[in-house]
Amino acid sequence: MRIGEIAALVGVTTRAIRHYHHVELLPEPERRPNGYRAYGFRDAVLLARVRQLTELGLSLDEVRDVLADDAGRDLTEVLEELDADLARQEAEIAERRRRLTVLLAAGTGQDQPLSPALAALLAKAPPTASPAAAKDREHLMLLDALGSPGQEAFAALGPLASDPGVLALYERLDALAEASTDDPRIPALAADLVAAVPDEVFTAIPAEGQVATGFQEALLAEYAPAQAAVIRKVMKAFAHRSRR
C-alpha cells in the first residue's frame, strides 16, 4: 500500500502519518525502487492502534510508551491514569458550572468569580450606599479568592446579611470618617461589631501568625484614622476569639 491508501484504510491523514514517522513513533517502511513507501499489513495494524490510543486522549509520548516492546508501560496502567485524569477534569468542570449557576441565580453582578457560599451571602445583602459596607464586601471577596475563611464561615454569616442592625453598624463606622482617634464612639462600635459576628465564624479565622505580612496594615490603610482604630480593635478581638 502507498501512504494515501493506508491513510484511507485506517482513517488518518497522510500528514499525520508523516508526522508519526518524523517523531519516530512509526518506523519508516521499505521503499519501492521508485521511492514510494510500501506499507504492509503490520504497518496498518500499528497505525490503527496509534489512532485508537490518540482518540482516547493519550499524548504521542504516552502512545510511544504503550507501543514500546520492553520498557513501555502496560496499556491498562496508562488507560487507568487517563481515566483518573478525565474524572478529575469532569469534577473541575462540574464545580465551575455549579459556581456559575449560583452566580447567575444570585444576580450579584460581580466582575469576578465567587464561591457559591459568598455569592449566596452577597445575594442576601440589601442595597446600600455605605462606603464601609462596600469595603467589607471587597474584603470578603479578597478572602474568598484566597480561600480563607472557609465556606462554613460565609454560611454562618448568612443571617447577618439581611439584618437591619448590620447596616446600622456600617453607618456608625461611616460616621467616624472625620473623627479623631480618641473619639469615645470607637470602643463601643468595636465591641458591637465583634458581638454581631457568630462564634462559628471565628473557627475559620486564621491566627495572627498565619496572616500574610503587611495584610492587616494594608487593610487598615483603606480607612480613616478613627475607622482604622475600630477595625484594629475588631481584629484583635477576632484573633483572641479564634484561639479559644
UniProtKB/TrEMBL annotation:
Among CDD domains, the record links this protein to: HTH_MerR-like
SUPFAM superfamilies in alphabetical order: Putative DNA-binding domain
Q: Does the keyword Coiled coil apply?
A: yes
Q: Which domain of life is it from?
A: Bacteria
In the UniProt record, does the keyword Chloroplast occur? Answer: no
The UniProt entry, under InterPro entries, shows: DNA-bd_dom_put_sf, MerR-type_HTH_dom, MerR_fam
Q: Which parts form a coiled-coil structure per UniProt?
A: 72-99
Per the UniProt entry, the signal peptide is none
Q: What are the HTH merR-type domain coordinates in residue numbering? A: 1-69
Q: Which UniProt keywords apply?
A: Coiled coil, DNA-binding
State the PANTHER family in the record.
Answer: HTH MERR-TYPE DOMAIN-CONTAINING PROTEIN (PTHR30204:SF93), REDOX-CYCLING DRUG-SENSING TRANSCRIPTIONAL ACTIVATOR SOXR (PTHR30204)
- What name appears for this protein in its UniProt entry? MerR family transcriptional regulator
